[in-house]
Amino acid sequence: MAEDKSRLMRIRKAQNKKRPSFRRFASWRYKKLAKSGWRKQRGIDNKTRRKTKTGVKSPEPGYRGPKAVRGLHPSGYEDVRVTQIKELDELDPKIHAIRINSRLGAKKRIDLIEYAQEKGFRILNLGISKEELMEFEELDETEEEETEEEETEVSEDDTEEEEESK
User: Fold this and answer.
1) Calpha distance 25→143 (Å, rounded)
2) Where are the domains of the chain?
3) Which of 1, 28, 65, 141 is deepest in the core (most CB within 10 A)?
């Protein structure tokens, strides 16, 4: 199955290179149409609708990729969006690659990344390198140590003042 899947992925990649960019008719003429997607032409004399050689290419079933790998990430994994750690328990690291929800904060994101790496998942949108992640964790640990030291200093100062007042 893995050989067949890799072969189909190569076929899909080759087809993607040959596939035309299905531009909307007259998008080159009007700026407001430049970023819009494909629209089927309905004019009675339109060359694109009549599929003449001079018209723009239309999307057709023959341009689709192989069914077995359709919708997969280029790496060959199925792309899954994850927000919570418990969602990872239902997934298989051999089949799924995870994409972490962008609304997740830094602390929960770090926990989720660590858990996913322990399970062996491929993370598609890590966003930062492992070195930056380690620096962030070290910075977080030093802040915790500093706050603990400040708390102990404050409590020592309080005990000294109480002893002096007695």
Assistant:
1) 59
2) 1-71, 73-144
3) 65
**Which residue do the tokens 């199955």 mark?**
1
Check: CB of residue 85 under 8 Å from CB of residue 112: yes
| Cβ within 8 Å of residue 125, ≥6 positions away | 99, 100, 102
* CA pair distance 74, 6, nearest whole angstrom: 10
Question: Left, alpha or beta for 115 (phi > 0: left; psi -120 to 50: alpha)?
Answer: alpha
Nearest to 8 by CA among 97, 76, 96, 95: 76
- The DSSP call for residue 120 is T
Is residue 100 helix, strand or coil? strand
Residue 116 carries which DSSP code? Answer: H
Q: What is the pTM of this model?
A: 0.64
> What DSSP string runs through 84-97?
SGGGGGGS-TTTEE
**Span 4-61, pLDDT tens digits:** 999 999 999 999 999 998 999 999 999 999 888 999 999 999 999 999 998 889 999 9
